[in-house]
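Possible race condition, two jobs.
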Amino acid sequence: MLPQIIQAGMGIGVSNWQLSSVAARSGALGVVSGLCLDQILIRRLQLGDPEGHVRRALAAFPVEEIAKRIIDKFFKVKGKAEPYMQIPMQTPEMSLEREDLIVAGGFTEIFLAKEGHSGLIGVNLLEKSQTDTLATLYGCMLAGVDYVTMGAGIPIAIPACLDSMSRNELTQLKLVVTGAKSTDDFKMSFDPSRFMQKAPLKRPEFLAIISSHILAMTMVKKASGKVNGFIIESPIAGGHNAPARETKELSPSGEPIYGEKDAVNLDKMKEIGLPFWLAGGRHTHESLLEAQALGAAGIQVGTPFLISNESGIRSDLKADIAKSSREVFTDPEASPTGFPFKVIQVPDTLSEKAVFEARGRVCNFGYLRERYVKDDGSLGYRCPAEVLNAYVAKGGKAEIAKNSKCLCNALMANIGLGNVYKDGHEEKALLTGGSLLSKLDINEIYNVSAADIMKKLRGI
């Protein structure tokens, strides 16, 4: 049975295990966000893990030695009394200890999301962030994840990686590297043997997130293994959007202009023969029935869950969103990925120019860094959100970077896990949601359980 409703993976830790668990118990495919799960894991431990959820999950981790080492290093009995511990950025040469954190982060989130019910749980990853992909996926698979969804790129290599890791085999992923030659061999390698799994793992279903039927056909023809379906995101969906194909010009307000060329041909999608779900602006039971009448298996829904009780967003920010105009701006420059990014206009967040300019530029997470070939042929890293002079010195273009915001730090701040520096400076939030946010009845989504939202979506 295919799920009719997919609860979308929204931002770092917004679609957390609590939200996805409730959505799954209510009949949806509950999806957790898969980015930064290692950082979320160790920061929850540093805050004292007051309800014991993280330690309960790690007690079930298949390698006791790894789980014990993580708890011994990061767990603070009385909670954090100083800035969070910094861990090295991810690279192809990162230590096994660093890799263990990624695996454990994926395992913990899926274990908790699946605990106590038989509903479906998935994980959402970005193609852009490749250095943590294999380890995150394997950790999620150790916990029995049912689905993997991935967008922000063309993830043609992922199906074969899932096949390989399900057999507990050495798995490699070719890295996207600016300036790389066909003879270059930049890749991530992941060896599951250290995690002592003798029996095959369940291979999760793979859904590619797309914005065109042409990309869907490309995935079917060129993907390294089986693609199980597609999520078709329209330009009004929250988070990252595909670049506009209609025109490169911007609207008077500075947003990308989407048109007929950006619409997906659903007749072509039906010819492919794989299930697909429609996403973006689909937030009612009637929109579910409409999507099914158009040939879709169902819909993906994100924004209505954004400020629900179980969402990972800080309670004060949920209140700020609820009482704001809930205006959403499609910012073509905000994201280091280069993709347009939906930004909710909320006071005292990075959506305000003055707040953005007051923040010193720093890249200390590195999940969205661009990989490039240095003059000596080695692999280099640069991020449009880092110190501008440093970015330019690495060959980056200042005009691309000048308005780029540090999503890694901002999205962690959204969920109450943002950096607090020794000088007392705290990272500011940057909130994202779909264009329909201002049109939603705020009383139906704010201070409301995801279970109640699911009832309305199902027409109950």
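Job #2 (started ~2 s after job #1):
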Amino acid sequence: MTRRLLPAEAPDDAGTPSLTWLGQAGFLLRLHTAGDGVYTLLIDPYLSDSLAKKYAGTEFPHQRLMPAPVTADRLPDVDLVLCSHKHSDHMDPETLRAVTAAHPACRFVVPEAWRAHAIDIGVPADRVIGADADVLLEPLPGLTVMPVLAAHETLEFDEFGHSRHLGYVIEAGGLRLHHSGDCVPYEGQADRLKDLGIHVALLPINGRDAYRLQLAVPGNFHPEEAVTLAAAMRAEVFVGHHFGMFEFNTVNEEHLEEALRRLPESIQWLRPEVARPYVLHET
């Protein structure tokens, strides 16, 4: 069986699993369980302009290059939100408060290290699920989440040993998707992910450099590192993200083009368009 993500011809496209990029690291997923359940998930949604307000007048003003594709109240009923770490383009206070209000049954998976922060910014405590690396969660019947370590330049832990940055492997109906969060390569990463049988890899491609880091903007995979990891984990589809939102923190197109020449032919490369649904096809 080979899996491919193709543009949807209709919003639900015959009820198949689907993925929609919301910009930056944000995705909307429609996943189907073995028991015919259908869930709507958000991962790292940034649907406000809070960073432009926060960083106005600084070296990196965080002006959007693309508008938010949707508001929280226009989303389909959201069952679950997953946030990979504290940074506001991943755990955005304005977005999470809006989702909390518009979707009262929705629950929120966040790193245990940032549980208190999620509550402080307005997510009700009884709707927060703390996540730790390698501790399997089943936040919804028939849907599991395996948190995995992420290194946002480095592996970081709080005083209790909880990782400050996580990726997630989400499984429903036999489909496994991996969202790495913000991440760079670290020892043992590829072997761990290979063991998890991932079909679709959602990986950042905006790279990193010393200049951005000294101004408190830690980076992500260079395109060639993302290609290497997608191949090492034996993914069937590689979806790039974390580009095109902020001028100072987007992908180097030449590096991406060169890296993609080394992507195995067995792996589909998808450069998603914002707000366009892609549906899963199996052959």
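The chain has a mean pLDDT of 96.
Logs attached separately.
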